[in-house]
Automatic annotation (TrEMBL):
InterPro entries: Class_I_gatase-like (IPR029062), DJ-1/PfpI (IPR002818), Prot/Nucl_acid_deglycase (IPR050325). GO terms for molecular function: glyoxalase III activity. One of its GO terms (cellular component) is cytoplasm. It comes from Ephemerocybe angulata. Its EC number is 4.2.1.130. This is D-lactate dehydratase. Keywords: Lyase, Stress response.
Amino acid sequence: MPSILFVFTSAANTLTGEPTGWYLPEAAHPYYVLAPHAKIDFAAPKGPNPPLDQASVDAYKGDEECIKFLADETVKEKLTNAKLLTDVKVSDYDAIFYPGGWGPVLDLAFDPINAKLASDFWTAGKLVASVCHGPAALVDAVDADGKSIFAGRNFTGFSDAEEEYLGTTKRAPFLLEDKIISLGGLFTKADKVFGSHVVVDGRLITGQNPSSATDTGKAILKALE
């Protein structure tokens, strides 16, 4: 059975002061696609109990899998015992996955321990996956030659158009789409704002937004099989 590491943000507030954290469906939806087929561990820069974005709880209060995730005793235990990034052994896993929320743009994007972890997963030939703002965690991830893992590769993530639609362009230090394009990434997005869109380019798997979370999980599962 393959093993997957979910890496959550530990950031609890945006640059403009709003509470943030990890975004509920972006963890819950892929989790229930993958959990029957893989061993899953959780980690975060500050370890146990990474902050959950309450706005995502409110927005998805009618979503069955989100409700299930919040009540799931196994999930609660994994969150309570989330590893520090320094305690992760790359050799224990087949894939790393970063759920979104604005949090990753605030902490994981600037965390040298995370940058090394993501780079080590990549150079070890593992799957590297993320959804929504999750790709921000990979902006300093490099291949064996020190080149960005996005250089010349297709990717997606939370788009400038989606940030503008929500009026959230000032919440984080950079806009994901612009930043990764500047690293040489080739950006694509859904035809409509908040449409599902997943890009698989070799071992790099990215999903655009919360609507893409289930399909991102399915793409990870297919790649692991």
